[in-house]
């Protein structure tokens, strides 16, 4: 039986109102009431009844609990297909909302910021701690505030750095590939021998929250010695021995494993370059869970292929998600698709941190995590 008297509106009614309501009543689905957007049918606002709440344009899907929390305090527009949005779509989204919540994979350039500032946009509440994808000069010039989500992803990212260290040192990637290819010929004393971590030296570049969490795990969990480079003096490490060295070169020379934890900036661009790679021990590992920009990937691939390095474990890449073919071809690498913060707990906490920052901002209070 027709619901509305028109087949087109019947279809829309069933798809967006009747069926979701039925699923909602059965507890299968949270509600989305779509406002048909000028951009795409798949950009939908949740509960439109919440007049007076600030609106927020969310570029990618979040874990369910974080989306639910956001919907309590804001009128969000979610990108239901979770596809990468174009700059024009983000500009239109920011201009028509009070805030935008982008992620590391959204380049928020001057075009988007200016469009936002010329429209309703007042806040960029980033879902993530790294903010090198946002043009700060343009945000400051346009009077747009920026927040991020530090702290909540420290443990998850440190765990992933240790995952990479272990996968390399115990040759887990190679072993898994061998087994799946049907090439495992059985146990033998010399098969895929890796190297122990105990007593080896972990070098850390950037001793912030994540660098310290990695050092703690490596020292207390795996008996590694810690040396590190940090721009400013670090005096608050007492639970394990850690030596601060004066320059990046000294850390490169000593480390059996070098892990990068500095933020991406003009100062840290290619901080691990061909010259510094050449100073490293020939069996040393390089680990990167920070940003692709901090390593010269061409130089790294060349050093790996020339066997001037023991291996590399990378979770981040300069042109991600496109990976330099030279890195893909390089031996002894473990390559992951930017999984540092990818636990349900952490990604939910990141979303909640966005909610807290945006709530403070629109209540006229200082941002909790201003950038
Ligand atoms: C960040 O937050 O900067 C991470 O790289 C994404 O989790």
Give the structure's gist in a few sentences:
With 371 residues, the protein is an alpha/beta fold.
Description:
This protein has 371 residues and is of the alpha/beta class. The protein has two domains: 32-151 and 344-362, Rossmann fold; 154-335, Rossmann fold (3-Layer(aba) Sandwich), CATH 3.40.50.720. Helix content is 37%, strand content 13%. The strands form two sheets. The protein has a seven-stranded parallel beta sheet with strand order 9-8-7-10-11-12-13, sandwiched between helices. Strands 1-3-2-4-5-6 form a six-stranded mixed beta sheet, with helices on both faces. Helix 11 (297-305) links the parallel strand 11 (285-288) and strand 12 (311-314). The structure holds (2R)-2,3-dihydroxypropanoic acid. The site of (2R)-2,3-dihydroxypropanoic acid has 7 residues, from loops.
């Amino acid at each position: 039986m027709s619901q509305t008297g028109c087949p087109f509106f019947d279809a829309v009614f069933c798809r967006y109102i009747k069926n979701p309501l039925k699923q909602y009543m059965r507890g299968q689905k949270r509600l989305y009431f779509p406002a048909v957007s000028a951009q795409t049918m798949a950009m939908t606002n949740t509960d439109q009844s919440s007049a007076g709440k600030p609106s927020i344009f969310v570029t990618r899907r979040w874990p369910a609990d974080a989306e639910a929390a956001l919907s309590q305090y804001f009128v969000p527009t979610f990108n239901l297909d979770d596809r990468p949005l174009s700059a024009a779509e983000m500009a239109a989204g920011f201009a028509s909302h009070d805030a935008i919540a982008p992620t590391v994979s959204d380049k928020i350039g001057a075009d988007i910021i200016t469009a936002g500032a010329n429209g309703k946009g007042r806040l960029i509440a980033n879902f993530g701690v790294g903010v090198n994808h946002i043009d700060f000069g343009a945000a400051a010039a346009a009077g747009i505030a920026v927040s991020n989500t530090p702290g909540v992803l420290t443990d998850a990212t440190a765990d992933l750095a240790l995952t990479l260290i272990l996968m390399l040192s115990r040759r887990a990637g190679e072993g898994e590939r061998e087994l799946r290819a049907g090439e495992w010929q059985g146990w033998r004393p010399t098969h895929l021998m890796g190297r122990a971590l105990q007593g080896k030296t972990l070098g850390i570049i950037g001793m912030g929250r994540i660098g310290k969490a990695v050092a703690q795990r490596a020292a207390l969990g795996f008996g590694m010695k810690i040396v590190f480079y940090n721009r400013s003096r670090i005096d608050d490490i007492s639970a394990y021995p850690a030596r601060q060295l004066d320059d990046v070169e000294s850390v490169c020379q000593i480390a059996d494993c070098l892990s990068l934890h500095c933020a991406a900036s003009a100062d840290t661009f290619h901080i691990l370059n061909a010259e510094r790679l050449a100073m490293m021990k020939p069996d040393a590992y390089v680990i990167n869970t920070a940003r692709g920009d901090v390593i010269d990937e061409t130089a790294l691939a060349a050093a790996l292929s020339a066997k001037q390095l023991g291996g590399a474990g990378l979770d981040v890449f300069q042109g991600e998600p496109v990976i330099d073919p030279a890195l893909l071809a390089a031996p002894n690498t473990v390559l992951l698709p930017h999984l540092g913060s990818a636990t349900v707990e952490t990604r939910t906490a990141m979303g909640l941190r966005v909610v807290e920052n945006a709530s403070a901002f629109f209540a006229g209070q200082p941002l909790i995590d201003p950038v």
